[in-house]
Amino acid sequence: IVLTGGDDRLWKTWGFPEGNILMTGEGHTDWVSGCCFRPSGTQLVTSSGDTTVRIWDLSRRGCILTLRGHSRAVRACYWHSCGDFVASASMDSTSKIWDVSSERCRYTLRGHEESVNSIDFLPFSSTALTSSADKTVCLWDVRTVSRL
Fewest CB atoms within 10 Å of the CB: 66, 85, 98, 144? Predict the structure, then answer.
């Protein structure tokens, strides 16, 4: 299964290698910039130009949580390997670590001077990696909200 998002405001799952659409999700009001499966495979997260991050339940075929807090478009999102946290990267020059259980932002990572274009967790760690339009890459300890 392949997961995509696009300018049509939709995310789609595709059967591979046939290329048939298995499921489509709608709810964002602007382009879908990022999408990632939860490690358990039962949910996914999407990010969008509409400044939101959304959690989708595949069995319910719908959005179960909308996370708000970025002031500009969200460029990327990623699940932590434990499945309890989601990271987002935004054009507002910040990244956020979201606690899915409590449905709130746990940490805001500040330090880039321009749009944060990507975020990823190093596997099985509390370290996040961000890249920015300011031509820098940062490693973060998300427990202390500090750059490494």
Answer: 144
